[in-house]
Amino acid sequence: MAFDLKEIIAARLGENYKLHERHVNPTLVAAQRVIGFDKVYARAEGAYLYDMDNQPYLDFLSGYSVFNIGRNHPRVQQAIRDVLDLDLPNMVQMDCSLLSGLLAEAITKRTPPHLNAVFFCNSGTEAMEGALKFARAATGRKRAVSLASAFHGLSLGALSLMGCESFTEGFGPLMEGFDARVPLDDINELDRQLRSRDVAAFVIETVQGKGCQTPKSDFFVRAQELCRKYGTLLISDEVQTGLGRTGKMFGFEWRLRAMRRDRHPARDLPKNIFANGSLRRPLDHFRPEQSGHGLRARRAGSDRQRKLNREFCQNGLATDGESRQSPRPTFVHQKSSG
User: Out of 3.20.20.70, 3.40.640.10, 3.40.50.1580, 3.40.50.970, which CATH number does the structure's domain 96-314 have?
Assistant: First the structure.
């Protein structure tokens, strides 16, 4: 019998919650039913979801902030079709993929000059884990310090950076040396934590995902200075701020001074990559299969970089004169600030 995915979807659309209740996560299904979020969506376009009656819903949650250019963008769809049509050799163990090299090159055109290599991951929390491993390898230190109310992911290392017991309960013991939390804007407490010179990394979110909090002072600039003073790496987790969502390509551009080449800062990029400067020493600790094709790439000139950043932040992925008329939404999904 031939496999026809379109036919299967058409025949079984509407069984979503029954299938998840039986085989995936019955607790989530029960919660969605209680709060009235058990709609069945048949398709998506841009910022809108459409139910089985073609009724539009404006989605403000945006897939936990990953749909910066909307769902099913025509240029992204065309790129996927093109890749499939090319029959490219994927996941060759002893190979350097052209596509990952091209993507790394495009990313490093938009980063400061010393952040000249990219490590690709499968998720935001894996990017966080990678950044922590690089920080430990580069410094020879074990500790990591984070901010109070931080959210960095749900794998063990990233989870250990979070002080919220609702996320960590039942999963201990967590990573040793990852238990220090610094209140936002408390530069004296950060100095107290770093002065022992045993901290591999201080981890921040330029806009905190839980509560959308930002500093009321020049805290991040002063924190950056303390990291340089004590030899601690600064990791900016930008999964929530995303590419271009703050009005600049990266959230740290609003809050931090130009990062110096000699401090090897790592930065987590949304959603599943991070850029790092001077990777030679940390990469000595990784086997080839762990590299994620993190290739060095030439950086374009600064004028070109600023132009690309400005165009992306203002326009997203334009569609050659195409203009879509937005339907009126029935209700709005709002992202929790808890």
Answer: 3.40.640.10
Token digits for 104?
């790394």
Cβ–Cβ under 8 Å, residues 71 and 57: no
CA-CA distance, 244 to 315, in Å (whole number)? 10
Give the helix/strand (H/E) hosting 102: helix 98-108
Q: Are strands 273-276 and 266-269 parallel, antiparallel or unpaired?
A: antiparallel
Q: Which helix (H) or strand (E) holds 310?
A: helix 302-315
Q: Which of 265, 280, 194 is nearest to 234 (CA)?
A: 265
Separation of first and last alpha carbons in the chain: 49
CA–CA dist 190, 182 (Å, integer) = 6
Weakest mean pLDDT among 27-31, 172-176, 248-252, 311-315: 311-315
Element (H, E) at 133: helix 124-139
For 22-62, how does the pLDDT look when each residue is reduced to its tens digit (9 = 90+)?
A: 999 999 999 999 999 999 999 999 999 999 999 999 998 87
> Which residue's entry shows tokens 């995936």?
24
Q: Residues near 33 by Cβ (< 8 Å), separated by ≥ 6?
A: 17
